[in-house]
Design goal:
The structure holds 2 protein chains of 2 kinds. By secondary structure, chain A is α+β, with helices and mostly antiparallel strands. Chain A contains 7 helices and 5 strands; from the N terminus they run αααααααβββββ. Chain B has 1 helix and 5 strands. Chain B has one domain: SH3 type barrels. The chains are: A alpha+beta, B alpha+beta. The interface between A and B is medium-sized, with 22 and 22 residues.
Chain lengths: 164, 74
């Protein structure tokens, strides 16, 4: 449902968006296999998510989020800060070539961005979304109830949340 | 393929078998699910968590692979 973010904790919200990146971090040896499976377990089994653990696994994201929090004059774990980061600021950092994005090719940068898209097709657990001229298939794991015409955000291979 | 391989490095599809593709990374081959992207042999793709997530224009892919190979020689 839309506005669902209001019912999840900032920790879970952060992890929903960062979840598609776990494979990348694991691949680059930035986190261990046990850290990666812990992250997946706590997300899908609704376990308590420790802030320290998230900050340890995603240091670059939190460095950026702290910058956003400072500008907003809020605590960096404030939901408004986390949401603003993923929905607006994350893409700007990518465009600036921040951190590892400096080495990324144009297509990979676009893939790493959070896009606001419209659902145009739905087949079981896979939805086709459209933004601009781009049509992309992503997993609907986090938004199983979306319908054609709904607006969602997408990050890498996943649709993350339904937008109002 | 070293453990430091960045996922931003595209691979080349050398074979498509039902729901899987065999993707080549400078000699090392990996299997990836193609549920999300329609591809054919010869395409360059980015694979994430064993899923092909995006097709990459050939020019960009070739440049990215070249850059990566130069980096690992250093």
């Amino acid at each position: 449902m839309a506005g669902e973010y209001k019912e999840v904790s900032p920790e879970k919200y952060f992890l929903m968006y960062s979840f598609p990146c776990i494979g990348n971090l694991l691949h680059e040896n930035k986190i261990s296999k046990s850290d990666a499976s812990n992250l997946e377990n706590i997300l899908f089994q609704n376990k308590t998510i420790e802030r320290n653990f998230l900050e340890f696994c995603f240091p670059n994201a939190f460095r950026r989020i702290k910058t956003v929090a400072k500008e907003m004059e809020k605590n960096y774990w404030d939901m408004e800060v986390i949401r603003k980061y993923w929905l607006e600021e994350h893409n700007k950092f990518i465009d600036l070539g921040d951190g590892d994005y400096a080495k990324a090719t144009p297509s990979f940068r676009e893939l790493c961005k959070v896009h606001k898209a419209e659902v145009v097709e739905k087949k079981k657990n896979v939805i086709t979304v459209k933004y601009g001229e781009v049509l992309r298939k992503v997993f609907a794991k986090f938004v199983p109830d979306v319908s054609i015409g709904d607006k969602v955000t997408v990050h890498l291979a996943f649709a993350i949340e339904k937008l109002d | 393929m070293g453990e430091k391989m960045c996922l931003a490095i595209p691979g080349k599809v050398i074979k498509v078998e039902k729901e899987f593709a065999i993707v080549d990374y400078s000699g090392e081959q990996r299997k990836a699910n193609i549920e999300l992207v329609d591809i054919k042999p010869g395409d360059f793709v980015i694979v994430q968590a064993q899923f092909v997530v995006q097709k990459i224009p050939k020019k960009e892919a070739v440049e990215a692979i070249k850059l990566w190979q130069e980096n690992i020689k250093k």
